[in-house]
Write a structure and sequence with these properties.
Elements lengths: L1 H17 L30 H33 L5 H15 L3 H15 L7 E4 L2 E4 L2 E4 L7 E3 L2 E3 L2 E3 L1 H27 L3 H9 L4 H31 L11 H12 L2 H30 L1
Antiparallel strand pairs: 1-2, 2-3, 3-6, 4-5
Helix pairs in contact: 2-5, 2-8, 3-5, 4-5, 5-7, 6-7, 7-9, 8-9
Length: 293
């Protein structure tokens, strides 16, 4: 095994030398020379490749954190609706789960991106569903703590905004993962013996109180392990952002590889970052699960 690895390393270094491609990570400190459309912090083309990759990492973190939060809330709600005795609510929740889980995530990302950029009107005719909130093909605009979006010229200024790329990616990841979380929540609640419900009702607790104080704490022990897997999947699935033009880590790393030719180093950075993120999420959720026990 070590011999095969040594042979692969020798051949790789020889091929790099034959093509006059320098190996190593010194390229990270060279000027990147390209702009990033949606930087999470200050960045210009004169900055280094290292800073460009840091922007991509920050963008990945942003969509992953928001996606996990949204998917957890939505998935929990849908999972509880699947347990509802109301036939309509139960059927709608079941239909959502079955439909979303069986359509590839990439297709869903394309759908949301097309819906935002093609189906929504231009800024001057933007939809106005809530005070200060505007939906247009330029993105979603909503108030910040200090200002409200105002139409000026051909676009909105002030407030906060979600670009079409970010909005499509966040919607796709959250809605897709929520369908799986819903089934995890439903299974976790059903795993609790009926006697626990009966005991709670005998004490005078309502269905909601029994769920919150008796069933949910026990169900979390069943829910947390598979929930960890879904958090990891959402984070890794965020790499599909490259398909709709959102500048995440993979997208910026691909641009870096194309400009520098450092394919091995670029891919190694991507692998190392996602491995680190996955281990961090797994470690935190394992710690939380141990506290529940």
């Amino acid at each position: 095994m070590l011999g095969v690895a040594a042979l692969l390393l020798f051949n790789t270094l020889a091929n790099l030398e034959a093509r006059r491609i320098a190996s190593g990570f010194a390229f990270l400190w060279r000027e990147a020379g390209f702009e990033i459309g949606e930087p999470a912090f200050a960045y210009s083309a004169a900055d280094s490749y290292a800073r460009a990759l840091a922007v991509g990492l920050a963008n990945t973190f942003k969509v992953a954190v928001l996606g996990i939060a949204a998917a957890t809330l939505l998935g929990t709600g849908i999972g509880l609706l699947r347990l509802s005795k109301n036939t309509l609510l139960h059927s709608l929740a079941a239909a959502y789960v079955e439909f979303v889980r069986n359509v590839p995530l990439l297709v869903q990302l394309f759908f949301w991106y097309a819906l935002i950029t093609e189906a929504l009107p231009h800024p001057r005719a933007a939809l106005h569903p809530l005070p200060g909130v505007f939906l247009s093909n330029r993105g979603v605009f909503f108030p910040s703590f200090s200002s409200t979006p105002v139409l000026e010229g051909f676009n909105f200024t002030g407030g906060m905004a979600l670009t079409p790329e970010f909005a499509a990616l966040l919607a796709g990841l959250a809605l897709y993962t929520a369908a799986f979380i819903a089934e995890i929540v439903r299974a976790g609640v059903l795993a609790i013996e009926r006697g626990q419900w009966d005991a709670a009702h005998a004490l005078g607790l309502s269905w909601r109180q029994a769920l919150r104080h008796v069933v949910a704490p026990q169900a979390l022990r069943v829910i947390v392990p598979p929930l960890t897997s879904q958090y990891l999947n959402l984070t890794k699935n965020s790499s599909l952002a490259v398909a709709i033009g959102y500048p995440d880590l993979v997208s910026i790393a691909n641009t870096t590889i194309n400009q520098t030719g450092q394919a091995i180093e670029g891919i190694a950075i991507i692998m190392a970052v996602y491995l680190t993120i996955s281990l961090a999420i797994s470690g935190f959720m394992n710690w939380y699960n141990a506290r529940l026990k």
